Amino acid sequence: MSAQKCIIYATISRKDVVLCEETLGTSDKKSTGNFAQITQSLLPKFPPQAKHNFHYDNKYDFSVLNQRGITYVAMTDRDMPLRIVFNFLTEMADNFSATYGDRAKTAQAFAMSEFSTTISQLMTKWNDPNADSATRVQQKLDAVKGVMIDNIDKIIDRGEKLDIIVDKTDALADTADLFRSDAQKLKCEMLKQKLKLYGIFAAIVIIIILIIVISNTNKK
Q: What are phi and psi of 46, to 5 degrees?
């Protein structure tokens, strides 16, 4: 089973002015790194379209959501499902907009740092594999598929054993046929021997009778 993909780092900025940021909890080994520096160096290069995603360094993905002049960025493990990432970014944007409104348009760098607590909570929520309904359905399908594959393997294994039994039965049947054939041949041979003995015995009796008859004839 492949390792779970995670949202590692998130930031909210106005152009290249970072308003707040958050990194995945320090108990996670992936939380150590220069994620903030990398993201801040890329901020001026992000395209202006509403949604954007690209790979970075063959290990990470950057997903970007632009709304009303504010840029919401998530740095994730490579190939994390975009549906989950943009659900995270959308909820983060909705919460941030509801909390600060137009103040974000003129705020100084890191003026909304307290919002990092909300980002952390959203990270925990969307990094949970049970948070996304499609993911839950996929997990159930994977579980069912695993059971089906296991059952098929058992059926195949049982089929192989049945084939072995059938082969042994066929071999026994062939042996029985051979034994029956040999028995028939032996029976014929014994019958021939028996008839031969009867013939010899009959010949001896006839010879004895002839000797007796001839002997009696000579006496007369």
A: -65, 135
Q: Is residue 194 part of a domain?
A: yes
Residue 2 lies in a domain: no
Measured distance CA(160)–CA(170) in Å, rounded = 15
Predicted pLDDT at 34: 83
Report d(CA 69, CA 104) in Å as an integer: 9
Domain extent for 31: 7-172
Q: DSSP string spanning 122-155? A: HHHHHHSTTS-HHHHHHHHHHHHHHHHHHHHHHH
Q: What is the token pair recorded at 92?
A: 């983060």
CATH number for position 138: 3.30.450.50
32, 138: one domain: yes
Q: Which residues contact 96 (CB under 8 A, 6 or more apart)?
A: 12, 70, 72, 104, 112, 115, 118
Closest CA to 42 of 20, 61, 67: 61
Residues 27-47 have pLDDT tens digits of 444 456 788 888 888 888 888
Whole-prediction pTM: 0.57
Give the list of residues 6+ apart from residue 13 with CB closer than 8 angstroms, or none.
19, 43, 70, 71, 73
- The string of DSSP letters for 27-72 reads TSGGG-S-HHHHHHHHGGGS-SSSEEEEEETTTEEEEEEEETTEEE
